[in-house]
Amino acid sequence: MTQPLRIREKLAELALRGETQPEEVMEALFGLKPSPGQRILITLDGPCASGKTTAAEALAKALGAFVLHTDDFVVPHAQKTPARLAVPGGNCDWERLSQVISQWKAGLSPAYQRYDCRHDCFLPPENLASDRILILEGSYCNLPGLRKYADLRLFMDTPEPERLERLRRREPPGSLRMFFSKWIPLENVYFAAYGLPDEQCVVIR
Fold first, then answer.
1. pTM of the model as a whole
2. d(CA 13, CA 7)
3. Domains of the chain by range and CATH?
4. What is the DSSP letter of 139?
5. How many CB atoms lie within 10 A of CB 164?
6. Nearest CA-CA partner of 69 in 79, 57, 83, 86
7. In this structure, are residues 121 and 112 in contact, taking their beta carbons and an 8 Å threshold?
8. Lesser CB count within 10 Å: N end or C end of the chain?
9. Contacts of residue 1, Cβ cutoff 8 Å, sequence gap at least 6
10. CA–CA separation, 94 and 194 (whole Å)
């Protein structure tokens, strides 16, 4: 695995050098040279509170990309059976998400519905932007049914003490207990099951 990439420093460096076009940024950061017209899927995985959303926003701004969040594709409560949750990453509705991504990669602008976990309902349909670059951000985006579409796989590496301190600052007590009792253990099982980050991941710190 290569030395972890410090994304904010590299983006600032590229801006100073005048390299601001998406193609220039992708090649300078990741050595990625897409074909003309090719749609690029970038996955951005990592533990909770590792900075995935912040990194995705920075990359989206630099690349002119659209960001899609795995948090909007949680399995509905009615489908959270013990058998489903026993599978690493089973709480992600990767089947529905995979359909959206495969249609986007085929050049379409597919309709999809974000799932509101708090109210257990689907939000009104919206169309996935036809941007050339899509960033899929969030835990579980390295599930086999999703990562097979990825042109570039990124993984956030943030020290555990820093991540836990971020959670304590941002989450109310009840939510914080859920992270420690449920969400973090589920993520850890998923990372272990798929050996993440693996050698194909670009590690970001």
1. 0.91
2. 10
3. 7-31+38-204 (3.40.50.300)
4. T
5. 17
6. 57
7. no
8. N
9. 197, 199, 201, 203
10. 15
Q: Which residues pair with 115 in a beta bridge?
A: 122
Residues 100, 128 contacting (CB under 8 angstroms): yes
Residues in the chain: 205
Q: Model confidence over 71-82: pLDDT tens digits?
A: 999 999 999 899
> Which tens digit of pLDDT belongs to each residue from 160-197?
999 999 999 999 998 999 999 988 999 999 999 999 99
pLDDT at residue 3, as a whole number? 59
182, two tokens: 């449920």
Cα 162 to Cα 156: distance, rounded to the nearest angstrom:
13
Q: Give 79-112 as a DSSP string.
A: G--HHHHTSTTTTB-HHHHHHHHHHHHTT---EE
What's the pLDDT at 1? Answer: 43
Residue 38 reports pLDDT greater than 80: yes
- State in Å, rounded, how far the first CA of the chain is from the last one: 13
Q: Read off the pLDDT of residues 6-17 as tens digits, 9 standing for 90 and up.
A: 888 888 899 888
